[in-house]
Amino acid sequence: MVSRYVITGSTGGIGGAVAELLREEGHQLVLVGSHRGRLDAVAGRLGGCETLVLDLLDVEGIAARGSALATGDSPVDGLVHSAGLAQLGAIADSDPESWMKQYKVNVAAAELTRCLLPALRTARGHVVFVNSGQGLHTNPGWGAYSASKHATRALAQALRAEEGPHGIRVTSVYPGRTATEMQRAIRRQEGAQYVAHAYIQPRSVARTVLAALTSPRDMEVTDVSVAVSGA
Questions:
Q1: Is 0.85 topped by the overall pTM?
Q2: CA–CA separation, 57 and 61 (whole Å)
């Protein structure tokens, strides 16, 4: 059966890999990203996808454009939150702007989810939060990012309890270091080399997301950690 999925962060990394896998299965996609050119390029490569340019720092924009996705006769069978922002730094050295920017981007999933709940309820849909290992523990220098990911974990837990009676399933996926452009930027901030083959590949995490989305209705995958092999 063909389903309709909304994917944030769909122009690269894990979100892009999720989009590729779902499209290979023949599903309808709404690709969400902040850059029109990149969105159009991915949509052109995958073929037949809807696109939505969305700035996750713009709460009013999320409300207006997100709600538009839930109108009409198009249910949302799945919502995959894969967009994120990571800025490292010790708490003593982190400015308020960095804290708030990361929190706004990484927890903006709350507003988009709220807007799509009517369509998700209609479809008895599934929400997947691509979180981070930092959403389960915290390391020095990761305070602001980790705090935002712990908040996203709490959001997913509350959503599961509130929307379960409406038939909505909620999954959080916690990947370790993954070979993405975000990871390249993180390694640069750490003053270390980026070695793509040493990390989890985006498509591997995407397969975990797909397994949760396509799991039988008599079960719910709630939390999945994905670690680098041998770590």
A1: yes
A2: 9
8 Å CB contact between 14 and 201? no
Backbone angles phi, psi at 107, to 5 degrees: -110, 5
Cβ contact 112:62 at 8 Å: yes
CB 135 within 8 A of CB 174: yes
Per DSSP, 190 falls in state: H
Distance CA 43, CA 20 (A): 10
Q: What is the mean pLDDT of the chain?
A: 94
Q: Of 191, 196, 166, 164, nearest to 179 (Cα)?
A: 196
Residues facing 126 on adjacent strands: 78, 169
Q: Is it the case that residue 66 has pLDDT exceeding 90? A: no
Q: Using alpha carbons, select from 113, 115, 130 the residue that is nearest to residue 19.
A: 130
Q: Are strands 126-130 and 50-53 parallel, antiparallel or unpaired?
A: unpaired
As a whole number of Å, the CA-based R_g of the chain is 17
Taking the C-alpha atoms of residue 102 and residue 84, their distance in angstroms, rounded to an integer, is: 8
Q: Which two tokens stand for residue 204?
A: 């591997």
